[in-house]
Amino acid sequence: MTALASSARDLGLRFLLLSFTDLFGVQRAKLVPLSAVEAMARDGAGFAGFAAWLDLSPADGDVMAIPDGASLMPLPWQPEVGWVATELTLAGEPMAQCPRRLLRQQQQRAAALGLELRSGVEAEFFLLQPCGELIADPADTQEKPCYDQLALMRRYGLIGPVLEAMESLGWGPYQADHEDANGQFEINWTFSDAVTTADRHAFFKVMVRSMAEAQGLRASFMPKPFADLTGNGCHTHLSLWGAPGTPRSGENLFHDPAGELGLSRLAYHFLGGLIAHAPALCAITNPTPNSYRRLAAPPTTSGATWSPAGISYSANNRTHMLRLPDDQRIELRLPDGAAHPYLLQAALLAAGLDGIERQLDPGPRHDNDNYAAPLAADQCPRLPADLGEALAAFAADDQLRRGLGEAFCTAYERLRARQWRGVANSQVGVEQRRAGLDA
Ligand code: GLU
Ligand code: MG
């Protein structure tokens, strides 16, 4: 019996969801009874690739989704069902545009340098009425709603069970709060290796949406659902550690007590890579037309958007694109709620590794209040103004493309360019919400 089938049996599961996240971040799955898991664990579950966002044609043969048993998690809200991440093959060959595979490949590139990316994500979300037009809680009206205890506890019936679910899965959840927009929440769990974090991030979105739906609510990770409220960020915390099996295994290589702010040269080169590739990275970190309503946006009713307007880094200061909050990690504040769990980590790692390989210098740190007194454009280049500009930067970034592989890049940009052409002149926010494109 395969390891997947026997773990599923030991967990008392009746069904498995064989799942993958397509290039637009939509979770696709087949529900498989336990009796059929044995064969599927070996051969995979078949999908018509054109029916998902994978840049395939209706004439292509079956995409086979091969499960990785290590990712198996029971759905805490439906414990007889297990979720397992898969990787995609076509005609017996691994597919270049499989997001999870792409991330594992970048992690292998890092491992060849003795490194392992560990990361954590802050996946903010709104709780909306089912129509998606209004926040769910009519009493959530404070001008500065962040950390509002009453509004948080009015959602205790959902947030409490989500925290318990994460605990049961062993993720190490440690806090939940009401965020800076009316109707907005964040739940944090402990960082880990980037593949595990990406699996959990993908699962988290499904879990929050499903558990909210069961209570008649709609959870939305859309980057900027309301023009006057703070948007949904997905801040990503990054550090490189000694890879398993190397002499420095388990050691945080970003930490150096002798370095500036306690961070190593390696950390600053990684930072240099993120800065150098930031415009192109936006095509992944801020992947939808709506994403560009969150960046460089006017202040919200709470007083601040908390999102970046340009490309700069700072110490413990949230008005810049990158924050160095302590001597252990880097926080990238650029990504938003539409960022793809696997592509996000893969692209950031590819950019950071390029910074290391070419020993890039991130330039000077700036500790100004970049909202009240913004830096001049030569010190803080602007970010792409829309998805079209981000895709142009992505098309022009040869180093990043080489790192990610041309086959993936071409497939990804073909789909996004089509999306951009389709909505460029429409009312992006409202129409995307209605169309449910807020993956
Ligand atoms: N929601 C803000 C954003 O769009 C971030 C708020 C925070 O700092 O947690 O990035
Ligand atoms: Mg937050």
Brief characterization of the structure:
The protein has 439 residues and is an alpha+beta fold. It is built from 13 helices and 17 strands.
**CATH architecture verdict of the largest domain:** 2-Layer Sandwich
Q: Can you tell me the overall shape? A: globular
Radius of gyration equals 21 Å
The largest β sheet comes out as: 7 strands, mixed
| SSE pattern | HEEHEEEEEHEEHHEEEHEEHHEEEHHHHH
Strand pairing plus helix content: what structural class?
alpha+beta
Q: CATH class of the largest domain, please?
A: Alpha Beta
Give the uncertain stretches in residue-range form. 433-437
CATH topology description of the largest domain: Creatine Kinase, Chain A, domain 2
Whole-number count of domains: 2
Q: What small molecules does the structure contain?
A: glutamic acid, magnesium ion
Strand content: 15-25%
How far apart are the termini? 36 Å
